[in-house]
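Notebook entry, structure prediction.
Reason for the run: the old model in the group folder had no record of what sequence produced it. Starting over properly, with the input documented here first.
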Amino acid sequence: MPLDQQHEHDRLKDGKGEMSFFEHIAELRKHILRSALAIAAISIVAFLNKDFIFNILIFGPRSPDFITYRALCHFSHSVGLGEGMCFTPPDFKLITRQLGEVLMQHLYVSFWLGIIGAFPFIFWEFWRFVSPGL
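New structure, fully documented this time:
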């Protein structure tokens, strides 16, 4: 901070007065940076847990032992329908049409899971920025 603005910084620390436009922009930058770091951290965790995310969460319904299939089959047996509600998913294969499509989908999914996972923190940062003005 320049020395000619030190008195403004001290005034703001004491809770007196209002912030200038550029001080608001600097504060907004801090909140956005912390939110971006939270998104990046959760995205990296999601990127490193590729097997769980793709095999269990996204492509889980491809396997016959998916939890919903087992629950429906168990419900069918407990109601007395026998194998009436037990089924297996159709067999299908994923086909990629472009060279880097698998990597790009992995990056897209990791990024969006980062945003979804960091949303409470992002909302909290947004509220911390907006609430003093309200």
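Summary: The chain has a mean pLDDT of 86.
The old model has been moved to the deprecated folder.
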